[in-house]
Please model this.
Amino acid sequence: MKVNIFKCLTLSLLLCSIQLLYARRIYDEFEDTYKITWIGNSKLISGTTDDWAQRAGDIYRLKIDDPSNYSFLVYELPENEIAHEIIVDYYSPTGLRPTLAVKNSAGEETKYVEGWDNGYPEITDKGHGLYRCTLKDNLIPEDATQVVIYLDAQSDIELLRNIVYYGDGYQAKNYNEKTNYYRVQKLLEKAESGNDITIGVIGGSMTAGANAEPMETNCYGARLKALFESTFGIDVNFINIGIGSTNSYFGCIRAEEKLLRFNPDLIIIEYACNDQLEDIYLDSYESLIRKCWKNPGEPAVISLMLCTQAGISKIERQYPIAQHCQIPIVSYNDAIKDEIIKGEKTWLDYYQTSTLIGGDGIHPNTTAHQKIADLIATELLEGKKASNIDRMASLPAPLYSNILEDAFYLSETDITPVQTGVWTAGGSIWDFGTGKGWRSEIANSELQFKINGDVAAVTYWKRPANENFGTAQIWVDDNPAVVIDGSNGEHIDQIVLTDLGIGEHILHIKLLENKKFEIVCIAVSGERSYWNGRYYLENVANNLRLTISNNDITMNPNGTGFNVSHTDDGYIAFNENNSYLSVNAATGALELSSNLDTSSKFLYIDKGEKAAIRALANGKYLSQKDNIITASTSDIADNEYFLFKNEGDPTTINELRNNEIDCSVVSNQIIIKNAIGEQVNIFDLSGKLLYRQNISTNNENIYFNNGNYLIQIGDKTFKCNI
Model:
């Protein structure tokens, strides 16, 4: 078993070391933070502080120093480069200016102080106390090795950004050399023909629209919707499932229920800011792309690369995955850097808001969101020009991994754990759109989930220390436990357990102390054991079974099983006597086919003890009504849920005889004999736990109302009709 811990950090924590490949064109402090030295009594601070929040928004360097001292920042410059220009953006409410100096390889310092006769940088007033200080190449020695910025203790200066420019312009990579634009062209053909389309966006707070004013109508997705509607005269259904402080793992587990079931024509994926540097994020990002790409309707999928106000982005990690999948890449990061280096724009043009003059340090503003929408539209039009583009029948093998491609979140309404101690239905402080989870604050309280798959994950809350959240152990089967900490944070974390092995497992979560702990949801992924073998597909609402027999498709209580197989391209298929269950895309009717093709492939949607099945042919879920099953809805209720039951499972409890245990139904009584010491659990057919009791007599009588139930005794589960 492998363990991977995700840290979905709030984006205000910007001090991380990220090495990008632009050093030959531009040196940027936030791309080489490990080369920065602070000398003085102050600290390097990033993000909003209570004392300064009303001044200029979030800042990058905050000077609070002893008046008797002074502080300065030293920036180590890359070797073998000749600096043409040094730029310092800063905020000073009193209009005072920093002192700049440049040191050469011999350690000799040339200091530039306002009023000295050896020159001073050009100063541009940006308004509202914001300034840009530019040191031209005539003041920079060719062998410069350091830039030093002195902050007089009484000058009250805050540094926003430091850039060193080496000339030659800014040259972005050609990310789309290998892009296949077939789906983009199909999207534009549909729009040009006057057909309405659906656009879906998935990502973090930038996708949600943070700092767009107002975010609902001026986020980049809404602006792209407006562009399509004004250009083509069509209606665009826009679905925005961006949530702040979430990463591509959380995107994977939410995508089906919140976005993909609506069969979008265009999907934009944005996680270049929120994904972290651990390798598991490469797996989750690739899994999400593949999950979206294989959705019914063949949507165009775009990888969008955004950056924070500090220029932080994981584009160097993510673009090779997007290139491997041959989907278009749109880099806002490169586009605005080009404008900034040319002097056409500053960072504040894209991050300053009406209330945060210096930006919030993270999120793009309304102007930037329109810019992003324009960049996406430009890339779509580039795709339209592409020639000799063939349809891709499938994606290549994963570049890293697709272990989370089949991951779906499971909440309190989806799966019923065996519980010890006290647990209540959890409700997150922040609505992540996954329903209620589980919470407790009693030591040794434990949840046990029966899962089927070889990857398990748990999403949990981390809360500030003063909220008294504690720790828990998580493990699967008899594997070693991992301790997770729910304190000292203000975000969600995920722990992912991989390489469990195909088949059924028990996922354990146990509290270690009398402190609060909240599980947001769990998730399961990887190959399920019932994807290959003979199984009944039984509808949860009426217990009827789908049957393929004699060239006919029926729903009946005594149906026979059929072969379930997992296809090479990640779907499932149902086969009996060389006939495949297939779907008529136009009507949703079920038919039989001799071919395994688009019409006979289905997506498996894991919902705990049950599953939903979505047809690749039309993107609709299998649903039964009046004992007739069709692929006809985008919503999921009991009529759309099915149980995969082994063909050898007994059909009713009256037929059950298991060695010493004797179980039967008489009138409204469930009678269990010879099962002392066993635990009995009774569920309704949706999987909700109705009754739990340890059996203490040789002749246990349990009274129940009329209905259909699942009864679990020990490790056996049976059905009864009262």
Remarks:
- The chain has a mean pLDDT of 81.
- The longest strand covers residues 517-525.
